[in-house]
């Protein structure tokens, strides 16, 4: 079993999900009392949020690169960054270490292609939906990604930071997200990517009218594949 290094804390709520999914899947595959070999470094999310707000992605990259090096020194064989947005600076993290970083867009794209879809909607932070790093990488996999209108992006982003990251899951937020998913479906989305690791804490497949791709779950399961591969 290889050691999984998790760069977490962004937010702590979704990092918990990564830990649970990885350990439960490891146990399901190996049985007994088996659990995953994990090392984790949890970052103060407020520091990252402040850097996001002022657009200091290089500064955030230096923090996450230092975290990656710390995990590598602790024996990690592979890295998982437990957030979608910060994959915007994935190259800075990967270049800082000699072990692979599993990219959330790549693992999610593979799940979309496995279902034979080529056009999906994307929900996430404003940065994930509009900065291009996510949609362009999906395009490299042959997948067209539809994003909500500007006002809808504002709603999705606000709910993530003001509610989901703080462990608040309101019925109004769920209704708002489902309305936005319905709009994406009307535009031709065959499925929807939960491109923020907290969205899967609010919505499940049974809530949605089209196939759901929960990036956090997909990403965490890909880490198990690697560790046990």
UniProtKB/TrEMBL annotation:
Gene3D superfamilies from the UniProt entry: 3.40.50.1860
Enzyme Commission (EC) number: 5.1.1.13
PANTHER family xref list: ASPARTATE-GLUTAMATE RACEMASE FAMILY, GLUTAMATE RACEMASE
Family indicated by similarity: Belongs to the aspartate/glutamate racemases family.
Keyword Isomerase annotated: yes
InterPro entries, per the entry: Asp/Glu/hydantoin_racemase, Asp/Glu_race, Asp/Glu_racemase_AS_2, Asp_race
Keyword Isomerase assigned: yes
One Pfam family named in its UniProt record: Asp_Glu_race
Superkingdom of origin organism: Bacteria
The name this protein goes by in its record: Aspartate racemase
Molecular function as annotated in GO: aspartate racemase activity
EC class (word): isomerase
Native species: Neisseria wadsworthii 9715
Alphabetical keyword list: Isomerase
